[in-house]
Write a structure and sequence with these properties.
The structure is a single chain. Helices cover 57% and strands 4% of the residues. With 114 residues, it is mainly α.
Length: 114
């Protein structure tokens, strides 16, 4: 899927898919929201209210990107996060990587790079 196709996806549908993955692995929506809020600077209430927003808009309108996201490394979907040049794709993969770490049971210290 191209970046343009990904950007046009309905945010609420992508969020529901991610939430489904998280809950199937025994985690909660609150844990997912903690990741999103840490990474992008959103408030949890804001994330729950987004309807009609595209996935691209969700990333573009992030209020405060966490600078520690640059410490996220490793592979996700066959891409090494630290080698992705496109900022949108890199940030998207950072979220994917953090969610994967959550569902794999990594500690919050490791997920949040503390």
């Amino acid at each position: 899927m191209t970046n343009e196709q990904i950007r046009k996806l309905d945010f609420s549908k992508v969020y529901e898919a991610i939430l489904g993955k998280v809950t199937r692995k025994g985690h909660t929506e609150e844990e997912l929201l903690e990741i999103v809020c840490w990474l992008m600077g959103y408030e949890a209430e804001d994330v729950k209210r987004f309807h009609g927003l595209t996935y691209g808009d969700f990333f573009e309108q992030a209020p405060a990107w966490n600078p520690k996201r640059m410490l996220i490394t490793g592979s996700i979907c066959g891409e090494k996060v630290q080698e992705i040049a496109d900022p949108f794709r890199r940030d998207m993969r950072c979220l994917d990587k953090m969610v994967d770490e959550l569902v794999k049971g990594k500690s919050k210290d490791k997920i949040f790079r503390t």
